[in-house]
From TrEMBL:
Its main location: mitochondrion. Keywords: Coiled coil, Heme, Iron, Membrane, Metal-binding, Mitochondrion, Mitochondrion inner membrane, Transit peptide. GO terms for molecular function: cytochrome-c oxidase activity; metal ion binding. InterPro entries: Cyt_c_oxidase_su5A/6 (IPR003204), Cyt_c_oxidase_su5A/6_sf (IPR036545). Residues 124-151 form a coiled coil. It comes from Penicillium antarcticum. This is Cytochrome c oxidase subunit 6, mitochondrial.
Length: 158
């Protein structure tokens, strides 16, 4: 029994003071248990829900927004950031958005990112037929800009 009281005394002496502890509220007669619990919950770190502002965006609005963003690209970082944002959504970007992205890649003289646009399309589509449709619709621009596909650059890696 005596060893327990020594243990209690030892643990009381080692407790941290104030740095990691939440501030204690002074208890008064007017404070109800509900307001006390709400005040304690407020002391702990909580984050507010951050909204991007694009929750109810239609596919056409999405396409128009990213076309505008790709038209304003001035450097490689901005191009890659916009591509990451565009491909992060659970949809395949429209041909117009991809055209704007490819033109932006040419404007900032970034050939590898242009090749990666087609890799992103291939990863996002549901099947090989959809990928071929995208390739057919972007074939003229691809030839004009001189962008090769990964399949053309590394045929043995299929």
């Amino acid at each position: 029994m005596q060893s327990l009281s020594i243990f209690r005394a030892a643990t009381r002496a080692v407790r941290p003071t104030g740095f990691f502890r939440a501030p204690q509220l002074a208890r008064s007669r007017m404070q109800s248990p509900i307001t006390l619990a709400a005040a304690r919950a407020h002391n702990f770190g909580t984050t507010s829900k951050l909204l991007s502002g694009h929750e109810d965006e239609t596919y056409e609005e999405f396409s128009a927004r990213f076309e505008k963003e790709f038209d304003g690209v001035q450097d490689v970082f901005e191009l890659q950031r916009n591509l990451n944002n565009c491909f992060a959504y659970d949809l395949v970007p429209s041909v117009e958005v991809l055209t704007a992205a490819l033109k932006a890649a040419r404007r900032v003289n970034d050939f590898p990112t242009a090749v990666r646009v087609f890799e992103g399309i291939k990863a996002k589509v549901e099947n090989q037929d959809q990928y071929k449709q995208y390739l057919e619709s972007l074939e003229g621009l691809r030839q004009e800009l001189g962008v090769a596909l990964r399949e053309e650059l590394y045929p043995q890696e299929e």
